[in-house]
Design brief:
The protein has about 170 residues and is of the alpha+beta class. About 45% of the residues lie in helices and about 10% in strands. It contains 8 helices and 6 strands. It has helices at about 5-15, 35-40, 50-55, 60-75, 85-95, 115-120, 125-135, 160-165; strands at about 20, 30-35, 50, 105, 140, 155. The chain has a 4-stranded mixed β-sheet with strand order 3-4-5-6, with helices on one face. The chain has a two-stranded antiparallel ribbon with strand order 1-2. Helix 4 crosses helix 5 (about 85-95). The longest helix has 16 residues, at about 60-75.
């Protein structure tokens, strides 16, 4: 966000169908869901992989994004037009807690996926093992609703991450 001036966040907002709401000082205080009639397409589900530096430096943005995903998950919209809601309903049906979690990173206070280190050391044989290293290090969900208070106290949610990864083509 510092280098790109919020480009990645803008991409997430565009895919989900949301826009920033600013107060008088220009500070963003909310991400408003664009009505589906105005959006003209379904809401795209997004899995965000946050760096530890982003997670810790932009806690306010993480909270706003988490709130946006929570609101998407309960929006009065058809799951056929809201893939966030669709995937949340699938997760709820299996008894998964916090199915709207979409912001994943390393354990609290930890940095790096360790993939670069493994590649640099040549300690891998199959590309799938690199994916498993990344997955194992990024199962912590962050946001307002995680860890009992404060963005820095994430919650391990491998079941949500696995479900979201299963909805992608790799």
């Amino acid at each position: 966000t510092i280098k790109t001036r919020g480009e990645a966040i803008a991409i997430v907002l565009a895919l989900v169908g949301a826009r920033p709401v600013k107060e008088g000082t220009g500070r963003t205080v909310n991400f408003e869901l664009v009505p589906l009639e105005e959006l003209g397409r379904p809401r795209v589900d997004v899995l965000a992989s946050l760096s530890g530096i982003f997670r810790d430096s932009f806690a306010n943005v993480v909270d706003l994004l988490d709130d946006m995903f929570e609101r998407c998950s309960i929006a009065e919209e058809s799951p056929d037009m809201n893939y966030i809601k669709k995937h949340c309903l699938d997760l709820e049906a299996t008894g998964t807690e916090r199915p709207a979690a979409r912001l994943f990173s390393n354990p609290p206070g930890d940095y790096g996926s360790m993939v670069n280190e493994v590649v640099g050391n040549g300690d891998w044989d199959e590309t799938e093992s690199l994916g498993e290293i990344w997955r194992g290090r990024n199962t912590y969900a962050y946001g307002r609703s995680e860890g009992g208070g404060g963005v820095r106290s994430g919650t391990a949610r491998p079941e949500v991450l696995d479900k979201l990864l299963s909805t992608t083509e790799r």
